Amino acid sequence: MTVDTSAATTVVAGAAAAQSAGKMAQDDGEIIVTTTAQKRFENIQNVPLAVQVVTPAQLEAQGVRNFQDLGKVAPSLTIRPAEHPVNSNVSLRGVGTFAFGIGVESSVAVTVDGVPLAFQARAFTDLPDVAQIEVLRGPQSTLYGKAASAGLIKIMTTQPTNDFHVKANLLATDDSEYGGSFSVTGPINDKLGYVFSASYSNWDGNVKNLFNGKQVNGRETLNSRGKLRWRATPDVTFTLSGNYLNGNTTVGRPFIRLDPNGYLRAQPGLKPAVVLPGVQVGPSNQTVSNNYDSRTKYWGWGTMLRTDVNIGKMNILGLTSYDRFRLDDYLDHDDTSAPGLFGTNTQIGAFKSRLFTQEIRLLSPGTDAFRYALGIYYANTAFKRPFLRGPAFSPADWYATSGSRQIAAFGQIDWEFVKNLTATVGGRAQNERVQYTFTDNRAKGSWNGHASDNATTYRLGLQYQATRDIMVFGSYATGYKGQTYDLTTGFNQLRANAGPIKPETSKDKEFGIRTQFFDRHMTFNVTYFDTNYKNLQAQTLEPLPDGTANFRLTNVGGLNTKGLEFESAVRVTRDLTISGAATYLDATYTSFPAAPCYPRQTLAAGCIPKGTTGYQVLTGTRAVQSPEWKTSASIEYAPAVTEKLNGVLQASWQYQGSVYFAARDPEQFQPAYSIFNLSAGIRDHKRAWEAALFVNNLFDKQYYGSVVNSAGNFNIAPVAGSAFVLATQAVLPRDFRRYAGIRFGLNY
């Protein structure tokens, strides 16, 4: 659990925070966090689920302004950035979807105001106008329209209020980042209310392209959202909302290791000094030399109609949504400025998505001993992907489409059959139909196909409220991720004949305790989990005879993930609050008999020769992107300095254990690291405004968001087919180097 660390305030999240537009109530120091994890506003201490609530104040204290940085405040969550958002990955408890193709369902779903996103790339942007974020860990299928086999990230934005409110934030840093956001909410009359919000951010990046002198690895984003709420009658409310997003990123992946005697694509004369002029390769390198502007640009819009109807004590909720999104990607595929044809290999494509959803839920009163939530869900998703790569090597030219239609019924019953003892039974039944087309313009081949599948999942649980402040629970749940097709480079008749990739399923056991002490001034929660995945869907490499490789999605076998999750918060005094969370994770492949070898892997390192390529056995190996320990902690001291002003001192710490981005590959290994952030400022005692100076990555610790083994592009001799040499690139995080800034917030 993560709480707002403002002194002398009750931590109120969810709709309560949204409705009050961020205003906090004064209290005697109790720590109270509410969640909507079970579709009702409840104290998180009474919810028998593994859920973490993150407030805007916590995001601010930890320096989190973008979706890809959420892992800094949620230890069970690991987000790996890539050269563009589609290739990024989100993992919960060591489980995520490593896939570059279209139409692949995510193990970790993302919803905004209750509506799912078509694919995760849609989420990789700023986090404007957030009321709260909830991270639900483990399979989710009995309470939500969109099922998820590993977890769910719920983003909730500000709702219309009965009073006029204005929120605004400004930020500027010493490394050329600047941005601002605002939201205005209030009534038009006694039946109509509104919200309008917008944000803009711009950062040049922390990598310099020596070829043209431009800064890269940066981003620019514009977000806007509007809502109109109409109380047609005391029991019927309609909320119409719309959003628009427009942005771009620049790409720069510096070489951090590179054999100076290698040859680009085994071409005579193309050594690193020639193809990367001026670049000083090393662990702290922040330069590239690309003769093509690697970048992405994206835009999207969506609309949603929410209908709330009260019939007696019951509530009927309807969610109707439509969303469109497009991302164009342009990549310097050779990542050099080499002269000649081999220095002009590019990769150009687009991701286009369209999503329509309809969900209806029926909720009983949350105070009854017998409670239920029932729902039906319909979704229709369509993707398009044109792709072109070449001309010198790894040529590709294809166009693919993917579509899915899903119908599901889900529900959960909670029954307090004995005082303080509650049993939970939930289930979900769904039918999904998937279809695709794939046209390879080089091979002059065209394929299409479709498949359908029925699936059921369930959840059983028991909860005991031992005392007012101690609750224990246990649950057993199953999860499901639907079948799909591997629509990537190299699709051919063999893949078409193989049919869809099998569904991924999971079985999860959880036990937890929720406690509060010292008149609820201290909270301490622990959750144990143990989850088995079967037919795990994951991205692998398909080596080709020319030394290149195609990325493939397939069923790689099984995975077990288990561990402990800790969350705590302490109100030491009225002015001093400490909070933290930690996850211990043991994620291991239980069956992975034929994984591709990583570049330059030897027989001694486990690469078993087979034909012109080889394979390795990963059974018993730790899963990728699963640090053993990950922690997050923050402290805030906010004493009164005058009758109307409080000083504010905030410090935060983020620790991540060592992690592999590709199994066993020493070139794709990130050692453990710690990051410290510090800020100091002043605020109005009612939090009407706040100004602060901050320093992120205080001790200037260098680490990598992701590491790429590029050995396949460099050979030991100018002879085709010669051995590969060391070549490693990194994706640098926003705080790769220490930076400072100023922020100002207004909450009127």
Description:
51% of the residues are buried. The longest helix is centred in the N-terminal third of the chain and has 6 residues, at 56-61. The protein has a 22-stranded antiparallel beta barrel. Strands 3-9-10-7-8 form a five-stranded mixed β-sheet. The protein contains four helices and 45 strands. It is an all-beta fold. Residues 1-27 have low confidence and may be disordered.
Structure at a glance:
Helix content is 3%, strand content 56%.
Structure characteristics:
748 residues; mainly beta; 4 helices; globular
Strand element count: 45
Average pLDDT figure: 89
Oligomer: single chain
Rg, rounded, reads 26 Å
**Total helix count?**
4
| Beta-strand fraction estimate | over 45%
Helix-strand makeup class = mainly beta
Low-confidence stretches: 1-27
- Portion of residues in helices? under 10%
Shape descriptor reads: globular
**Main pleated-sheet profile:** 22 strands, antiparallel, barrel
In whole angstroms, the N-to-C terminal distance is 28 Å
